[in-house]
Amino acid sequence: MQRIFVFAGNYGDGKEYRGYFDGENFCPKLGFCKSLEHLTEFDFVELYGMDGLLCATPTSLCSDIAGLMRSQFQKEFGESKRGRR
Question: Helix or strand or coil: residue 71?
């Protein structure tokens, strides 16, 4: 199962696991994140692959978190789920 793990938090409060991205959809962790849009309310987002941190970015500098997830997924796994047959 190919996934990018999504952590987010606020400076001074640390980070928590908020859900995962499967190549097509962000699946929020119940009780910790409501939606993809909810991630923009945090100060930063970190994306992790199987070998560790892929990227960390302040949400104030990222206008397209979904696009960031897609590009990091493609870098990690070489293709999107849509591209597979």
Answer: helix
